[in-house]
Amino acid sequence: KNEVEQSPQNLTAQEGEFITINCSYSVGISALHWLQQHPGGGIVSLFMLSSGKKKHGRLIATINIQEKHSSLHITASHPRDSAVYICAVRARDDKIIFGKGTRLHILP
Amino acid sequence: DAEITQSPRHKITETGRQVTLACHQTWNHNNMFWYRQDLGHGLRLIHYSYGVQDTNKGEVSDGYSVSRSNTEDLPLTLESAASSQTSVYFCASSKTSGIWSGELFFGEGSRLTVL
Description:
The structure holds 2 protein chains of 2 kinds.
Chain A: E1 4-7, E2 10-14, E3 19-25, E4 29-37, E5 43-49, E6 52-56, E7 59-64, E8 69-74, E9 83-91, E10 96-98, E11 102-107
Chain B: E1 4-7, E2 10-13, E3 19-25, E4 31-38, E5 42-51, E6 54-57, E7 64-66, E8 76-78, E9 87-94, E10 105-106, E11 110-114
Parallel strand pairs in B: 2-11
Antiparallel strand pairs in B: 1-3, 3-8, 4-5, 4-9, 5-6, 7-8, 9-10, 9-11
């Protein structure tokens, strides 16, 4: 079993829809990262959080430490949001463990 | 602006050749990491370093080596390239303390093809 599991693996939605991507992990962590990777592109850090909730524009990330679960929400989704979203956790020894990513496709 | 750069961005080589991928960061970060990204596997850790002269093996380190002679650079060397090492390689760095500690910064990736 992977230490970081994301769901869904693939998601197609219409422009304007509210999007939720989930991440569950099984190890003790000091922080959780949400990353974005556009096709053929580099990887950009969206959020780093260790508790509660963070918001940046139309993106919201939440984490529940007790349940070892995090969600990334996108409000009013747009075709430019189409990308792979990756959840990564920072373990206690500072190693980063990555999920396999969620491929999001927003249709115009 | 501070940044992290990888070179080359694309490389084609032959089986058995030695290849070195460069990673250079100007944030003065202590932590540096090398990952490979393959379909169905996500990002997997090859080697990492927590500071000058410190290097550690990750989960897929066989066939790779790194050295850390200064803070800015962590070159990744494939001693004898194999077709199984065809992949996209990402370098990343992070700070260990203070404001923004833990924030991850990635290079743009190096696509390596081993024929």
